[in-house]
Write a structure and sequence with these properties.
This protein is of the alpha+beta class. It is built from 3 helices and 6 strands, in the order E-E-H-E-E-H-E-E-H. It has 3 domains: 30 residues, no CATH class; 41 residues, no CATH class; 30 residues, no CATH class. It is 30% helix and 19% strand. A hairpin with a 6-residue loop joins strand 3 and strand 4. The protein is elongated and about 75 Å long. It starts with a strand and ends in a 6-residue tail after the last helix.
Length: 118
Amino acid sequence: MTFGKTNCPNCGIQFEKIRKNQKFCSKKCYSEIHRPMSPRQRNRCPECSRDFQGTKKDKYCSDECRKKVKNRKNDAYRKKTSVRMKCRVCGRMFYGRNMSPVCSSHCRSLFNKGVDHG
């Protein structure tokens, strides 16, 4: 059941109303009118030092820069909370937290089968 045609006050396209009091053609158009974007400002990315336009909350210029920083912080935390050990199957050095005797799932399956070079 439709309730006639009307024009969207945001984008101007004509659409079929599916509710009696519907004014907008989509949630996107509704949001653009009722939740305007935060004001844009010039920011500098702390990772790559590029200038970019963003909101006050935007810290990085891209997901790539954000992920680089997050990965670096995660690696530093892992190294701080981990112990450097030697894998008992392949002999590779690795960081472990719970005193696991192996470095990977592959070595774990070999270790569980009884392979131990350590």
